[in-house]
Amino acid sequence: MTPEQNSDLLDLTHSSSIEELWDLHCRRMARFGFDRLLYGFTRFRTATSLGDPNDFIVLSNIGSDYVETFVQNGLYRSAPMVRWALKNDGAASWTVLERMLQSGTVTTAERRILEFNAQHGITAGFSISFRSLSDRAKGAIALIAGPGVSQAEVDATWAQSGELIQLMNNIVHLKILTLPHTPPNQALTRRQREALEWVGGGKTTQDIATIMGLTSATVEKHLRLAREALNVDTTAQAVLKAALQNQMFVTDA
Q1: How would you write the pLDDT of the chain (253 residues) with one tens digit per residue?
Q2: For residues 186 and 245, is the Cβ–Cβ distance under 8 A?
Q3: CATH architecture under which domain 3-176 falls
Q4: 217 C-beta neighbours (distance < 10 Å), count
Q5: What are the start and end residues of each CATH 3.30.450.80 domain in the chain?
Q6: pTM of the predicted model, to two decimals?
Q7: Under DSSP, is residue 49 helix (H, G, I), strand (E, B) or coil?
Q8: What residues does 141 pair with on adjacent strands?
Q9: What residues pair up with 91 in beta bridges, in sequence order?
């Protein structure tokens, strides 16, 4: 790799927030002709679902109207490349979509997705599905070429720089997993985080009250509000979910 490429990779690893990391990555991918990105990750996948969309990590520089429709309205469930990502690891050219259209194997729902994407100028690109050791976790990213760029041009770029592009995206994905990410309306207060941290350390409510200088009732209130914010039923679930979101054991800026 060139010194500039080494510097790019170091910059990614040094990012201290998801916002900083994502902005940097979008600018790096634009150098390769991918001017729009759509990243998604879930830790709550089951055999029949990717979990609650409100628990997804979704990052994109596409217009919010597209992302809202694609994710919150559930179009992603029928998206051919999302289905590919759920069954595969690695990178795939969107030529698979062209082959699907040519073969006539596209379902009505899939055709609706392809038409929706075409309306937004999303017709050529590459998808990367990240490997996970957990059956419940899955992440993938769509690298979308600019309007007017053919899939053949994208494939030519990939043939020249695909390994570097995939390496950069793998680093970004792994970095995202280490950074705090709070879905809308799930942010915890400092006191709620602290109470959950002590629960995670094996302390009782009375222990926590003594440590935090509060009454047991106040500790219970913080734990209840934490459960409500995280949309879970038990404190144990709240500890796990807060840990998965990297809200636990963080230092306030």
Answers
A1: 788 888 889 999 999 889 999 999 999 999 999 999 999 999 888 878 888 887 889 999 999 899 999 998 889 999 999 999 999 999 999 998 888 878 877 888 888 999 999 999 999 999 999 999 888 899 999 999 998 899 999 999 999 999 999 999 999 999 999 888 777 677 899 999 999 999 999 999 999 999 999 999 999 999 999 999 988 999 999 998 888 888 887 665 4
A2: yes
A3: 2-Layer Sandwich (3.30)
A4: 9
A5: 3-176
A6: 0.82
A7: coil
A8: 39, 128
A9: 128
